[in-house]
From TrEMBL, chains A, B, C:
Its main location: endoplasmic reticulum. Conjugation of reduced glutathione to a wide number of exogenous and endogenous hydrophobic electrophiles. InterPro entries: MAPEG-like_dom_sf, Membr-assoc_MAPEG, MGST1-like. The lineage of its organism: Eukaryota, Metazoa, Chordata, Craniata, Vertebrata. It is found in: Endoplasmic reticulum membrane; Mitochondrion outer membrane. It comes from Physeter macrocephalus (Sperm whale). This is Microsomal glutathione S-transferase 1. It catalyses: RX + glutathione = an S-substituted glutathione + a halide anion + H(+). Homotrimer; The trimer binds only one molecule of glutathione. Pfam families: MAPEG (PF01124).
Length: 161, 161, 161
C-alpha cells in the first residue's frame, strides 16, 4: 500500500460525521475549561490574592508582600468551578471518544454532545454569577446523565471483559 | 469508496479485541470516578456541609444559613479520593489509549487493564472505609505501576520524537 | 476481510508519523505528571505531613499521631503544581488527539508537541525550585497558547456542530 493510500485511510476517521461532531464539541468544552485558568489569573491579579510568595514579589518587598498570600471567596469559587469541570469533562472525554467510535446513530450522538456542552456552559455561568440553586445542580446532573447514558450505550453494545 | 464501505472500515477499531477491552475497562473506571461526585453530594446534604452560600440557602435565612459553610472530615476525605482518581485515571486514559492502538498482545493488555481497574476500585474502598495502611498505598502503587508499564512498552516500541 | 488484514489496517494508525509523535510526547508529559504523585509522597514522608489519620498511625499512637495531620508549604506547592498539570494536560490530551487525527502537517504538529512538553517541564521546574516570576507564568502561557493553537486549527478545518 502506498503512502498516499495510507493517508487517505487515516483521514477517514475525520470524515466520519459522529467523530467530527465529537471533535468539535470536545474542542469547545475543553477551551471553555481552559478559560477558567484565565478567570483565576484575572481575579488573582485584580484582587491581589496569591498562593505563592514568588507571585506577589512584584507587589512589595518581604513582609509587605506576604500579606497577599491569602485566600479569597471569588478566587476559590472559580477554582471550585474549574475542578468540577475537570471531574466531569475527563469522563466525557474518555467515554465520549469510545462511544463515538462504537458506531452510534448520528442524531442521537449529536444530541448527547450538545446537551453535555450546553449543560457545562450553563454550569459555569450558574457557578460564577452565582445563580440560586437548583440552577447549578440541574446543570451538573444533566451533564452527568448524558455521560452515563453514553457509558450505558457503549457497555450494552460492546462489553468485553 | 462508498459510504457503506467507509462505515465498515471505521467499525474495525471496535472489532479489535484489545481496543474493545480498553473501552470496557475505561468506561467502568470512569463511571466509578463519577460515583465520587455522588458520594460528595450525599455527604454534603446529609451532613449539611457546603462550600457555596447559594447551596445552603434552603436550610435557613441569612446568618442562620452561613453556619453550614464549613468543612467536614468525611467530605474532605471523599474529595481527596476523587482528586487522587483524577490524577491517576487521566494518565491511564491517555497512555492506555495509545498503548491499545500500538498492537499489544491481547492477554497482556487485558491483564494491565484488569489490574488497573481492580487497583483503583480497591483504592477507593481503602480510602472511604478507611482501611489501615498500607492497603491504600499498595492499591495506589499497583495502579501507578500498571500505567508506567504501559508507558514503557509504548515508548520502547514506538518512540518518535 | 481476514483477521490478519484487519490487524494490518489497525496498525496503520501507529504507522502515521503525526500520531506516533503525539503518542510519544503524550506518554512523556503524562509520565512527568505522574512523577508529581511521587514528589508529594516523598515530601509527606520526609516531612511527616499527612492528610489522613491512618497515614500517620505508624508514627505514634492516638494523640501523638494526630500532630502529623497538618499542612506544609512544600507539600502544598507540589500539590498546586500537580493540579495545574492536570488542568493543562487534560485539554492537551483531548485537543491534541483530535488535532493529530485531522491530518496536520508533520513538522507543524511536532513543533506544537515539543513546545507543549518543554513548557510543562519548565513549568514544573519553575514551580518546584521555585524560580522568580515571570518564569512560571511564561511557561504556563506557552503551553496554554500551544493548546489553543491546535484547537483553532482543528475547528477551522473540521467544525461540525
Amino acid at each position: 500500500m502506498t503512502k498516499i493510500e495510507k493517508m487517505v485511510e487515516l483521514t477517514q476517521l475525520m470524515e466520519n460525521e459522529v467523530f467530527m461532531a465529537f471533535a468539535s464539541y470536545t474542542t469547545i468544552v475543553l477551551s471553555k475549561m481552559m478559560f477558567m485558568s484565565t478567570a483565576t489569573a484575572f481575579y488573582r491579579l485584580t484582587r491581589k490574592v496569591f498562593a505563592n510568595p514568588e507571585d506577589c514579589a512584584g507587589f512589595g518587598k518581604g513582609e509587605n508582600a506576604k500579606k497577599y498570600l491569602r485566600t479569597d471567596d471569588r478566587v476559590e469559587r472559580v477554582r471550585r468551578a474549574h475542578l468540577n469541570d475537570l471531574e466531569n469533562i475527563v469522563p466525557f472525554l474518555g467515554i465520549g471518544l469510545l462511544y463515538s467510535l462504537s458506531g452510534p446513530d448520528l442524531s442521537t450522538a449529536i444530541l448527547h454532545f450538545r446537551l453535555f456542552v450546553g449543560a457545562r456552559i450553563y454550569h459555569t455561568i450558574a457557578y460564577l454569577i452565582p445563580l440560586p440553586q437548583p440552577n447549578r445542580a440541574l446543570a451538573f446532573f444533566l451533564g452527568y446523565g448524558v455521560t452515563l447514558s453514553m457509558a450505558y450505550r457503549l457497555l450494552r453494545s460492546r462489553l468485553y471483559l
